[in-house]
Records
---
Amino acid sequence: MGDSIEKEWQNVNKLEQGIKSLEQNIQSLSNDSLESEDDPELNELIAENTKLKHRLAVLNKAIANERQQSSKPLDLDSIDAPISIIDHLTKIFNVAIATAFPELPSPPEAAVVAGANAKFNDYQCNSSMQLAALLKPIYAAKGAKPPPPRDIALKIIENLPQTPLIERIDVSGPGFINIFLSKAYPEKILNSFLLNGVQPPKHPKKRVVVDFSSPNIAKQMHVGHLRSTIIGESISRLLEFFGYDVLRLNHVGDWGTQFGMLIAHLEDKFPNFAKVSPPISDLQSFYKESKARFDSDEEFKKRAYNRVVKLQGGDPTTVKAWTLICDVSRKEFQKVYDQLDITLIERGESFYQSRMESIVKELTDSGMLEDDDGRKIMWGVVDHSENDIPLTVVKSDGGFTYDTSDMATIKNRLEEEKADWVIYVTDAGQSTHFKTIFQCAERVGIIKPGVHRIDHVGFGVVLGEDGKKFKTRSGDTVKLSELLDEGLTRAMDKLKEKERDKVLTPEELKQAQESVAFGCVKYADLSHNRTNEYVFSFDRMLEDKGNTAVYLLYAFARIKSIARNCGGEYANNIKEVARKNPIKLEHEKEFKLAKMLIKFPDVMERVTKDLCLHYLCEFVYDVCTTFTEFYDSCYCIEKNKAGEIVKINASRVLLAECTAQLLAKCFYILGLKPVSKI
Ligand code: ARG
């Protein structure tokens, strides 16, 4: 449904543009004809004018048809996926405005927003005031007084296409249009969630590459990589939920001159490495040792350079040494991925060696590279200013750089992988790098504007509780695996403090511990606006009040227990209950909860647009608090004094279960593992 309206609107826009240019033509033709009455070509012009007017009439008719299409009432029976309410309302208000005020050549998009207080409205359209200002000069030209915003509002309402989403509309203040939703749509869509699972809003399929995590071999995976890992995983899950084809890439730093010294050092320390795997337990110290030799020993340095050449040339023994070194880091990284439930395909910088060679050739051939003291550079914009920084595509020693590798990644992902959309998740410190890469890729025609979507998803630094860059007490970078272990210990302490160890089985307790520990780390990251810095504090993350993972996990378990406590079909076959006895919204708080739940598609759209997961975190929190309000005033189950169930309100239990299922979907995207007992 959403798609077809979308297409119709695109048609209307195209037609309107056509009309505008025809009108301009007609205008200039009529001016010409006035000035040149004796012109022998006058007749021809008049004929041309008539033809244009005829085409204009045809186009106008086509527009009217398209409008009628958009204004066809939404058919509730045919809705098979949740729709974005803001989108739907915006579209029908666009139609209403265009129909009510044909004198406006191109009316602005209707300003529809969600209301803050259900007493006054659920949604509101604030366009009347803006339209009044736009109509003023048009009326003035005719010597007339423009209508006041209130009358404009009434006229918009008069022309509003029918929709089963709206129950009633009124006008308040100077001309605010207040929209009150009907119960029919939420009843229908929430019940369908129970029958068919929680569905995403409909979108045409896309292929997306998400580059995230991307730590560097032989170096510590730090909290910056932790952020990239958490955010990238959630973005991938979100886009997969939409049904997109997502390629999750781990762009590990596994290439470059530092591998020459690592390999040379390996040859000396473990001459037998080709046969017996070297027991390097601490790759960081291994790195430090080889770096020290590299800096002080000329002979070693020479050999290190030679190993880089051998590695790039594909010499088998050297490649073997390189693989062994990479494997050590790989195992370390994998531990973190396993704990955090991260799925990734490793495609490191080495993958792009031959592609870097060809992109350099392509850029050279197309004359994009400039010589700068022996370096080959490329500017993102031709008319660059002093503040612009060019890419260094080839160093003066002929070597490639991080810039070269990212010119290769963008080409590979758009052209070989045929992605429609490419996302890079790294710290905001790299935003200039990516901005220039994207500009250069557009200059050479790799990125096609209007066809491809490219995002650098940047994020702020992680701070310690002292407000300074996150470090251990001794000032070292924090080891991620140790950090996660600390999370486990803290989570268990918290559960014991709440005496959960006395009610849960050892297995349940372990599940709860992991869910809380890893969930709180992920959620603390995602619930902050990613562009800001955030303070890493276990104490804060583990609080059970406010918008924290712990609060949400408890809330979820409570909601989930409602259907379970009813037993029978409620516990074992909720679909059957929904089929026999669909959700019926009666109590005011039931309706309030339902209206919150159906905001889901709007939230998803917003998250997708900005790639900011904190909107989804705010939503799940709002859902939980609205649920509490509902649960406090609406009995789902009534029990007698003996604690036996005497009455079950089926619709309310279904509403609770629907809330749980929707939350479960959001939790999955946010990387929270819900547990039914905690
Ligand atoms: N390895 C890089 C770092 O640690 C991140 C790589 C991000 N991906 C990319 N295609 N540049 O900063």
Note: Residues 150 and 174 are 6 Å apart (CA to CA).
---
Amino acid sequence: MTDLALRGPVYTLTSDPFLNPEADCAVYEPDGLILLRDGLISAVGAYANLRGTLTETVELRHYPDSILMPGFIDAHIHYPQSEIIGSFGTQLLEWLQKYTFPAEARFVDAEHARRIADFFIAELQRNGSTAASVFCTSAPVSVDAIFEAAGPSNMLLLAGLMMMDSHAPANLVNGAQASYDVSKMLIERWHNRGRRLYTVSPRFALTSSPQQLELAGALLREQGDVRLQSHISENRAEIARAAELYPTAAHYTDIYERYGLLDERAIYGHGIHLSEEELCRFHETGANIAHCPTSNFFIGSGLFDIARTKDSARPVTVGLGTDVGGGTSFSMLQTMSESYKMAQLRGISLTATQSYYLATLGSAEALGLADRIGSLQAGYAGDIVVLDPRATPLLKLRADSAESLDELLFALMICADDRAIEATYVAGELVYARDTAN
Ligand code: GUN
Ligand code: ZN
């Protein structure tokens, strides 16, 4: 097998810039080399230091005018909502009823599920995302379809059956015990097959009975290394309804904690309106948050306070998610841009280092995967995005006047989108090349 080597400017995060001095958190090598073998990075460093390892069995690809960085990791996205992206005029609870539930009901049809799943995986990779935590629907074929679609490119994908047994249309509820049984069967079928990982997925407290949350907790206890994803504290009406349905809980977070759903394996979308006490529970249990700014703006949910959430006195681990189809773009660059603007409205200016961290290593940490993805280091996956900072006339004009790497990276994340994704590598193989894609 021919090994691959990628040469060019290499940028990677190595630790959390919200908690450590920025200068210690990122590494930039203006003329770098990444050696790939068996899907992993076997070495990374300066070209001058590693060029001696380039034998004739190594295929060298040179990207002198690009930036090589870890593939983006979308920490929260719904593949069955791909078709309803950009649906007009509602906020969360009405949006679910009017657009989301009808769209999800179509995924009992395996053919439809396969078509959207194939589109979805290609669209992630076209946007430079090399791993994602994905919600399916309550139909088991929706889970099979997305895991099958991830197979050919050997993409790291977390997904699981949507568990919902109450306060939702009859064609979407799956019953507490049935959702447990089917989840268990799907874990046996898919978990740890290749790079696929199962994530237990109760939608949120509003559509799960106490019994279903109890059984979701049982799955976590019984299955060891599976993960959990859900939603929390996104919208004021949602929070009020959660309090009505679970009147003895101290707060929204307590609902999940009571059922054993709050630990380091758990990632919750949004968490915009969490109280100080709730953030403390997240910190103490190691539970994680997926920040989804394009969705929060679009559905009108509120302004996530990243500085408060990551307060170094009790930091919570945060990753970045698109939350398509509440979110409005598959592009993690666009998502970084919106998270910058949201933080601005909270009086905080996120730096480029913080933003690229959230989209790569931060998401990896929030998904409990920072030992294998989210950074370019020997032994990590060969999941790499090649960014073209001069992808459009405007980007070229801007890039040519940038006086530092930080300035260039910042302007790129504010102004760029899928056009700046020149190539995407997954597990050491090229899966998308902009200039040869049709
Ligand atoms: N809360 C519960 N379900 C959903 C969903 O599908 N999207 C969003 N944005 N929030 C949710
Ligand atoms: Zn969501």
Note: The first strand starts at residue 3 and ends at 13.
---
Amino acid sequence: MSARAQIGVTGLAVMGRNLARNFARHGYTVAVHNRSYAKTESLVADHGTDGDFVPSESTADFVASIARPRKIVIMVKAGGPTDAVIDELIPHLEEGDVVIDGGNAHFPDTIRRERKLADLGLHFVGMGVSGGEEGALNGPSIMPGGPKESYATLGPILEDISAKVDGVPCCTWVGPDGAGHFVKMVHNGIEYADMQLIAEAYDLLRHGLDADAAEIGKIFEEWNAGDLESFLIEITADVLQHVDAETGKAFVDVVLDQAEQKGTGRWTVQNALDLGVPITGIAEATFARALSGSVPQREAGRAALASDAGTWDVTDRDAFVEDVRLALYASKVVAYSQGFDQIAAASAESGWGIDRGAMARIWRGGCIIRAKFLNRITEAYERDADLPLLIADPYFADIVGKGLQAWRRVVSQAALNGVPTPAFSSSLAYYDGVRAERLPAALIQAQRDFFGAHTYRRVDKDGTFHTEWSGDRTEHDA
Ligand code: 6PG
């Protein structure tokens, strides 16, 4: 077996298969391997014309077919299966080889795996890949972490197969150890928020306009020609206009309204809780999926809870549509702002040095949240790399400010008419919270001191204080 492959891919389900084809189409000789050889054979039989594949049945042959230092991409289900494949590869690997995990791994697992492989003289790169099947084949957004030195040889290949926007690859080295998978996790959290916000906009239009799915699909189509232009808005327009072949009804009307998840949104929220970063948009989006799937609770709620909402009578339809568009844009900016805050906090805590502007840049193409406005985010971080709050950047402060009245109208009308808008509402609440001169947190501090002597600080002098609430109410230094 001559070691002629420049890269190897093991795990040939749809993502791995398409990634392998993408490498081959870019002129790389690709070693391919899968637990069941039939998949490897079918890849070569069906897509051999894509380029030069080197199929192997055994792990030993697969590894031996790759030139050193080897670059091996693992594309299997995140969790146990990834560990199993790594353990299978290890005995065949040699010092300096690079193992790349392209699955949606939880970043603490990536950190653990990198340590384990580093002890063996091997490099481990946790690599976020976004764009689904289509992206994997035609150009995904790629978020590799791991040792920087491995990016020197791996980076050019990954940049080659990634999506390009204005000729710029949607791939860059994110940072050491778990940084790549961390950023992919937050990408997915933002994806959840974006999807929830779009779903709420759809629901508002449906109730407010009493319109059918196809009409709303047309509205999304128009929105996609403006500031909101993005992959998710585009597919929403398409999905809403799709008709179910079996019933002739709008497709969205025959789909069960229980949203599922594989866990990346949940991880994002769990991590934000640990970091103490308010990512309310992502959290509400994740909880909204949970609520949708809470079948017994929804049954009980439907049976017992009144709405006491009137009939929604929108008089100026065009103005209402524009209000919803502005509210969607503002809420979306909040969700991204919060996600970027989380990246900054984790990066500071772990010493990853993540460049947020570069993350917005590599999300402009290939990935699920690709959108026109990501350019604006990159520009904001170019203006100020340490920007503490994305929505406070002059560009975003201005556009959110201009839509503020609309945003308030939409959220209040939704509440008056009993339409749930957890992500719209919480984003507006966050906006009002983060810009508030003074928050009622002062009262919470006083309450905490009252019942638990938890102490407080004062606005007028330094130090920490406690009041003797159950005694003479004198204050003393704590
Ligand atoms: C992507 C997607 C992709 C996938 C997730 C989300 O960036 O290509 O985020 O990773 O769609 O698995 O799926 P869930 O909604 O099932 O969590």
Note: The chain has a mean pLDDT of 97.
---
Amino acid sequence: MNVLVANLGSTSFKYRLFDMTEAGASLLASGGFERVSEYSPCIEKMLEDLVAEGHIGLADELDAVGFKTVLGKDLSGCVDADDQVLTALEGFKEVAPAHNPAYAEGIRCFQQRCPGVRRVALFETAFYQWVDAAAANYAIPADWRALGIRRNGFHGASHKFIAERTAELVERNDVAERVRQLYVQGPGEFSGVPLRVISCHLGGSSSVTGILNGIAIGTSMGFSPQSGLPQNNRVGDLDSMAIPYACKMLGITVEEAETQLTQYSGLLGLSGVSNDARDIREAAAAGNADAQLANDAMVDSIRHWAGSFFFKMGGLDVISFTAGIGENDVTLRAEVCAGLQDLGILIDPDANAAIRGGKEGVISAADSTVKVVVIPANEELVIAREVFRHVAVGDALS
Ligand code: ADP
């Protein structure tokens, strides 16, 4: 089965075409367009290229297209990308303005251009469907909650992949299989030995998720991807009173505050240097105190959330690092795990230094009771796998 993954950024369109079988995935083609203002011409050109390169005879020979949709009102999971998905994206377009309109347009383009091709949406919130109500709710009045204001969580595709891959690495096939089947069969009952994982997705956008027996119990991101850890240029967690107070004292509107918190905050706002972790580390090494503060605040926030999940899960078996910073920043990984030997967490400095540049491996010491691992992110592949499972199971049932 060939599966096209369409990645619609706010200003870019990237795609990958995979050949999917039960045994695995192979990449057939990939490409993309930058500085995109309209998706339809890009999709047309991509289809032309895929035909010209001989990957498909006609556009309609694609078996499925997968979309990594971000946030839907009253809808989550891995579902057919139909009118229900378009309505859900529309319902929260104010909360995810950079993503929801883009995905709605992309889905409509495919609907019109190749109506016979199966379209599947994998929501970034899907992995958090089974989080306890006590952890998913904010303490707000009922009419606010009726609007759908709750802790949603994001990076679901990435953290779910980590849940599955981590279980494979520690030879817990019972848990890995539970994760593989999660979106098609639900979690079911689990009576095996507990597997407690903290997954740190640290990139341009970052989050920490607690995963018990393959299922997320909570995550650092909340209602929108605006919350949790300091992000590249977005604020992360902020006390709700800060916004009315800053508006009043700085004489700015709520819209101006929103722009400052979504574009000029996070690592960029704290460091005053850059939104890129590499530049910040370089500036900190050269003595820039604000850059050092940005790095330290990021580390502190990762430890804050990891500590919370450690406590909630009653212990820990694996910490996993992924995405640009998690896969490459050896120093930050060491800082996150520093001084935790009494909790059974001990990094092997040589192993830590050796795992970077897209490598997978264990970076904890032999006598660390908690395994610390690095797992490269591959979001397109994760989506292709979930789409394949969704379509294959749907076909098996029909
Ligand atoms: P996105 O969330 O946009 O997909 P990535 O997962 O690619 O982003 O992560 C981007 C982040 O990873 C940037 O902040 C970048 O500085 C950081 N990064 C990439 N390589 C390194 C490195 N060698 N050391 C430290 N940080 C790195």
Note: The two ends are 17 Å apart (CA to CA).
